[in-house]
Amino acid sequence: MTDALPDIELDLSFDGPNAVIVGGAHKVVRLDKLVALAPGLLQPSAATRLAELANHLLLGDDFSVITAPGDYATAFRARLATEDPSLPWRPGVIRLCDFGVPDFDEIKAPELSDGRLVFFARDSFTGLPYRIELDPQATDLKAAELYQPLGLTPVES
User: Fold this and answer.
1) Alpha-carbon distance 51 to 78, whole Å?
2) For the chain: N or C, fewer Cβ within 10 A?
3) Which residues of the chain have pLDDT under 70?
């Protein structure tokens, strides 16, 4: 039986840690505290919601969880198709072709298995994908250690 999830609202902060409001009453800034209040998030069926909440607590809107890998790949390829890699690099212009192309088969929807949450997230600035693996009950999560960029294959010019 799946535990019902309480209402959980995002609370974005510009001068402190991001938080979530659980059940309209509890402000939480750590993922381990969140899953203690909402243990239903530890069910495999809640992996996407848990990934979205973990991402919010760790990095706010700097990254967005990739929930539909096929849609992400399609959008990435469409954006890449509009870029001309033969043009010289220009400061201040973000082009995917300057970075490369990930292995789209590696990107999966969020998954919770054996107490580990694995998800992929898109950098909101560059559009590049990152892999994140974490223990939702860990007390010492550090985004800089968790968000790992995927390997990229150079774009032919």
Assistant:
1) 26
2) N
3) 1-3
Q: What are phi and psi of 46, to 5 degrees?
A: -100, 15
CA 143, distance to chain mean position in Å, is 11
Taking Cα atoms as reference points, which of 129, 137, 80, 136 lies closest to residue 109? Answer: 129
Sequence-ordered strand ranges (E) for 16-56: 19-22, 26-28
Q: Residue 83, class by beta-carbon neighbours within 10 Å (0-12 exposed, 13-18 middle, 19+ buried)?
A: middle
Which tokens hold the place of 151? 């390997």
Query: Per residue in 76-91, pLDDT tens?
Result: 999 999 999 999 989 9
- Tell me which residue of 148, 150, 65, 144 sits closest to 100, measured CA to CA: 150
Helices of type H across 1-157:
31-37, 47-59, 69-81, 143-146
Q: Which amino acid is at 109?
A: A
Its pTM stands at 0.93
92 torsion bin: left (phi>0), alpha (psi -120 to 50), beta (else) = left
